[in-house]
């Protein structure tokens, strides 16, 4: 499929300090933690551009308490489009042409808002405050022990019972000559799901005319805390059928083995050999 070279830039900021972490990573995967991949022919895109990029906002549905949920459709000049809702910052659809020019959706999603609110699959969602599992929901920081909400047996998973995937984000669409995007903002109060510190977060998705989907995560806190945000889309680059012929590459020298409860053991296992 045409989606293939995506980068994510993640910036973490503590209090009023400058950026203390910034990295880019490209991954090719079915379930991607840090990026979405767009076409190998990125450098050749844009030759047949006809329309300016657009970011169109429209109603998507209402939660059980009647809170309105909106969706923004990002479209670049090549006709590639991305749908995002402000419930969980979920990417519900990525429409892109295959090698024959046939359009297809390459991310897994659900049919409607009610399905997303009831799901435990995290399809397409922003994960936070902390992705993956924390054993028994406990951690220590600067000599203080913290107990987090548990939602995976005795463990804490993907931010807890009401993680960022279940939050309603503020959504601001934008477009430029070369891209269309949306910035999602959320304030997580001190003590949310057991985490210390108020956390102000912004996630920006930008679809460019080079057919890249850039993701930028920014987080600011007013006291020491832990954070490990990510994006949880699942991909089928064929647009339909199974993924048994997909090839996955992760540019990494090591992996983190897990125990029987899928908790990382802390070991860094080298993949060479």
From TrEMBL:
Belongs to the aldose epimerase family. GO terms for molecular function: aldose 1-epimerase activity; carbohydrate binding. Gene3D superfamilies: 2.70.98.10. This is Aldose 1-epimerase. InterPro entries: Aldose_1/G6P_1-epimerase, Gal_mutarotase_sf_dom, Galactose_mutarotase-like, GH-type_carb-bd. The lineage of its organism: unclassified sequences, metagenomes, ecological metagenomes. Keywords: Carbohydrate metabolism, Isomerase. Pfam families: Aldose_epim. GO terms for biological process: galactose catabolic process via UDP-galactose, Leloir pathway; glucose metabolic process. GO terms for cellular component: cytoplasm. The keyword Isomerase applies.
């Amino acid at each position: 499929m045409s989606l293939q070279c995506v980068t994510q830039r993640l910036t973490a900021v503590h209090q009023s300090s400058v950026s203390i972490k910034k990295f880019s990573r490209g991954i090719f995967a079915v379930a991607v933690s840090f990026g979405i991949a767009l076409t190998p022919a990125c450098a050749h895109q844009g030759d047949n551009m006809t329309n300016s990029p657009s970011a169109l906002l429209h109603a998507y549905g209402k939660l059980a308490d009647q809170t309105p949920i909106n969706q923004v459709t990002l479209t670049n000049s090549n006709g590639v489009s991305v749908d995002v809702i402000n419930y969980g910052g979920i990417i519900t659809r990525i429409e892109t042409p295959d090698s024959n020019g046939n359009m297809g959706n390459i991310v897994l999603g659900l049919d409607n808002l009610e399905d997303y609110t009831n799901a435990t699959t995290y399809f397409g969602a922003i994960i936070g405050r902390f992705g993956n599992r924390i054993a028994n929901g406990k951690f220590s920081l600067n000599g203080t022990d913290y107990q987090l909400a548990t939602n995976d047996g005795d463990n804490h998973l993907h931010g807890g019972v009401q993680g960022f995937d279940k939050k309603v984000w503020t959504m601001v669409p934008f477009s430029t000559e070369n891209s269309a995007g949306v910035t999602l903002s959320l304030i997580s109060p001190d003590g949310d799901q057991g985490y210390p510190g108020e956390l102000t977060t912004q996630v920006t998705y930008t679809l460019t005319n080079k057919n890249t989907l850039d993701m930028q995560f920014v987080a600011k806190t007013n006291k020491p805390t832990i954070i490990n945000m990510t994006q949880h889309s699942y991909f089928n680059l064929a647009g339909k059928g199974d993924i048994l012929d997909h090839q996955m590459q992760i540019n990494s020298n090591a992996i983190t083995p897990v125990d029987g409860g899928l908790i990382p053991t802390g070991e860094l296992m080298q993949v060479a050999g």
